[in-house]
Amino acid sequence: MTTPRLQRASPGLLREPNVSRLLFADPRLAPIWALLRIYVGYEWLMAGWEKITNPAGVWVGEKAGTAVGGFLTGALAKTGGAHPDVQGWYAWFLQHVALPNAATFSYLVAYGEVLVGAALIVGLFTGIAAFFGGVMNASYLLAGTISTNPLLFILATWLVLGWRVAGWWGLDRWVLALFGVRATPPAAEGPSAAEPATVR
């Protein structure tokens, strides 16, 4: 008589909550994620394109760094008071790292916004693009600029969380498979994929 052997469940096979699977891994919600992704991508693409095609050339070109320098100087002016808009540690970064390299940051911002926007629109490396978009939003917020940054930061965070399905209606559906990443969202494979076997 053979005694059933208890198999220890792997931590990697922990069951994902149903709500989380529905929101972040169910391909039935792919159309909603696609609309969200394209909206955020459009906002980034237009913001970057306006900088690159700026007729005054204050973002890219001979005068690169002019606009960024003005922005950083304005941010440094917000460091006073008991509750400053720009915290001291970030002001140090702006003054000693960003401002002396304003021209470099100008190119990074302009082309970074275009690349993030284009990647989100076509659904290519959605999670990575959304992450760097969120980093830019956070940088602007830390520099004391509100505008659309809070909303875009929240949406970028959701896109990072939903990367498995956010690019399902996009290039991620095929491109990620080339890198060995699961091409089909887990929710499409049924609940058994997330349930570890305990006895055999």
Attribute tags:
200 residues; 57% helix; globular; 9 helices; 0% strand; mainly alpha
Please describe the biggest sheet, giving its number of strands, its sense, and whether it closes into a barrel. none
Shape: globular
Order of helices and strands: HHHHHHHHH
Number of helices: 9
Membrane topology: Multi-pass membrane protein
Protein name: DoxX family protein
InterPro entries: DoxX (IPR032808)
Main location: membrane
Walkthrough of the structure:
The chain is mainly alpha-helical and 200 residues long. It has one domain (29-194). The protein has helices spanning 18-25, 30-52, 66-76, 88-98, 102-122, 126-142, 149-161, 163-166, 172-178. α6 (126-142) runs antiparallel to α7.
Write the SSE topology.
Blueprint: H1 18-25, H2 30-52, H3 66-76, H4 88-98, H5 102-122, H6 126-142, H7 149-161, H8 163-166, H9 172-178
Helix pairs in contact: 2-5, 2-7, 3-4, 3-5, 5-6, 6-7
Protein name: DoxX family protein
InterPro entries: DoxX
Transmembrane segments: 108-132, 138-161
Can you give me a brief rundown of this structure?
The chain is an all-alpha fold and 200 residues long.
